[in-house]
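User: quick one
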Amino acid sequence: MAANPLQRLRSIKVKFSIVIVAAVAVTLAVNEIGILLNFVAVFRAGVAAVIALGMVQLMSRGMTSPLRSMERAAASMAAGNVGERVETSSSDEVGRLAVAFNLMATELDEVDRQRRELVANVSHELRTPISALRATLENVVDGVVAPDPALLRTMLAQTERLQRLVAQLLDLSRLESGNTPLHLLRFPAADLLEAVADESALHSPDLTFRVEVNPPDLALDGDPERLHQVFANLTDNAARFTPDHGEVVLTAQRKGQRVVFEVLDDGPGIPAESIGRVFERFYRTDEARSSDEGGSGLGLAIARWVVDLHGGRIWAEQREPTGCRMVVDLPSQ
Ligand SMILES: Nc1ncnc2c1ncn2[C@@H]1O[C@H](COP(=O)(O)OP(=O)(O)OP(=O)(O)O)[C@@H](O)[C@H]1O
Ligand SMILES: [Mg+2]
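Assistant: Done. Structure below.
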């Protein structure tokens, strides 16, 4: 099909004006020629109308076709085919609408991909502890193993892991849906970090947890419970990767209008290729994945949501010679 001569114009109004002016000019010209050739008025009008309509058809070709393909694509997307796209070479409003439509379709496609991935991940994460629990219970029922206290403790641990996973998933979905308003308060940073350190010391008695706050009376604006959850997640990770009898350091300092927190450990650190990905849901480095210890890779995703809701930033850095530095940068007056 020949390219539309008006395709390069960026305004549909200008296109229509040109088409109308051209149609009127053709009609007039045909009329004048008809008069010279002594044709009757009805015949002149008929010929002028046919030529003008043909010209309008030719000139407006491609002006409405993106609209028709968008209609088809929208119907196909509604039926579940999110891979659908619209082809357009026009640069007017309809062309730009088609580009915006394609952008929306790409985003929907991505959301759909993430949803499928999430369902697959959730199913996998739930299936693993459930299968383990079921296998153990089957062995007990078949009389292969005796239900002694050690076995019951393992089963209890598996159940607790499941419960924690479900609670984390619920929490993440609430955060993502925006249904969790923050309860903002002004409170001392030292209280927050010391509460987290004390709690972690109970879980990891052979590690030392040190808190450094500068200035010591540093206060910040935030949701204390949510931020407690963030630093508990970061400290839990740090403790898990710290060698026996090692130390985890939690710091807070004022930097202008911001409060910058760090959680430092001297474990192996996060490999460079994973450092940007550890905040994704279910992401674990290979080392963490291959070990039975640790969780499902949701702790940092939750932390990032909470920090984002506070208008702050969170990132991971590698420490020299070894270890991980988690930085949380929050705005605070
Ligand atoms: N301090 C750290 N040192 C080394 N690797 C870390 C550290 N913190 C996080 N990681 C890596 O990032 C991954 C994701 O951490 P995240 O807290 O999201 O999940 P998790 O600890 O595996 O599980 P969950 O927190 O849900 O119980 C971890 O599995 C680990 O591979
Ligand atoms: Mg974690």
